[in-house]
User: Fold this.
Amino acid sequence: MNPLPLFPYEMHIKTLCKKNRSRKQIIADQLAEIERKSFTQLSRCFRLFIPSHLLPPAKSGRNSRKRLFSKETTFWAFFSQILCADGGCAEVMIKLRASAALKGINIPISTGAYCKARIRFPEKEMASIFQHTSSFLAEREQETHNERRIIVVDGTGVTAADTAKNQRAWPQQIQQKKGCGFPGLRICACFSLKTGGLLSYKTGNKKSHELRLFRKQHKTFREGYILLADKMFCNYVDLSMLRQKGVDSIVTLPAKKRLPIEGTNAVKKLGEDDFLIKWTRPVRSNSAAYSQTTWKKLPKELLLRQIKVTVDTPGFRVKSFYIITTLLDPLKYSAEDLAELYFRRWEVELNFDDLKTTMGMDELRCKTPSMVRKELMMYFIAYNAIRWLIYESSDLHDVDPLQISFKGAVQSVRHWEPILTQSKISKSERQMIMNKLRQSIIENRVLLRPGRREPRCLKRRPKPYQLLTAKRNKMREIHNRSKYRANAA
Assistant:
């Protein structure tokens, strides 16, 4: 008969011992620690703006497995890629490999895993993150400023990679030969004049008019908002529909719509070149972009205010223009204030310049329409994140956020990122670093230069290369034939 054990759990000691971990498991854990400190640490800089609960792991299916590029890691790697000067996928893998070198681990530099992770990332979740950023900026602006919110609207165009799928979604211009052009996207966007943040946008192809894209964004406007736009958005339908929502408008009047201020058109003279006028509802054509039901809901008459603005500043292309507005009170909204406000509409052009030139959104790189849409959204998310950081920094130091250089802010975040991703930093030290980052952003200001004039000309000449007038394989044949003839001669 075997004796009883001295301890009741002695027979289970071997089963309680931990199993030896394989080399593969050890490397996998090390890589997980490396990727966490390489990319997700960037979220500490924007944790209030883009909280982690917006990037939950999937319970099953795609994005549920524990990978090197999880959903959260993929998002912040994509975010870091947008902020990089190069902007390529290899930039992300090189950064990951540099972090792995500190642990003595050598990993391949292939971008396949990262590109597949970007494809797996749900497009709807990225859209919800963008909506969160725009809503957060709106709430933050409303908390600090109780004045009426001014929304600036305009459109622009960008190009995508020349692939068959992109060409079907956004075909190139008819005048261009096949293989010699790029798919073109049209974008109509709404920006906040106070913060410069992007609130909403819609995209289309060459057949999409900016006005139709704008009408899909009427939900962005709430009661008390003010629309600021150019002559493209001056029409009876939009002014009436926004007025019914309690939204006022300030737009320029196209030359073809100018009517003499006399007879039944003028209702009252408010001042020099300042009149109350009356517009009547236009007749709806069969090719109109709005339905018959929408047309019937419009009022038969619309009372507006027309102001003639004379431009005395040298360098402007026009000497005078007309403003149409639904702000009818001349005591509360003087003609001079409205003219000065309209001159600030140029801020929307600078916002697009920050996106297309500073951040490099002018030429999108992804090769499928779904990835192009994700890339575009990630540009807008990163743009709003930088705008939020500028706004927070300016609010702490009582500075106008539009006087702070956007490019300087991007450079500051880009070069302070390695410091923020260090693991051996306490909470107080991280807070001190964030304060230093905000101070660095504040110091990069754009000087106000009123009346500055610069010719719209390029000094640097382009390289004298031949233009691509056919597909590349045909151009190679033409080039080889001409080279052969030259050698034979």
Remarks:
- The chain has three domains: 22-121, 124-358, 370-443.
- The two ends are 108 Å apart (CA to CA).
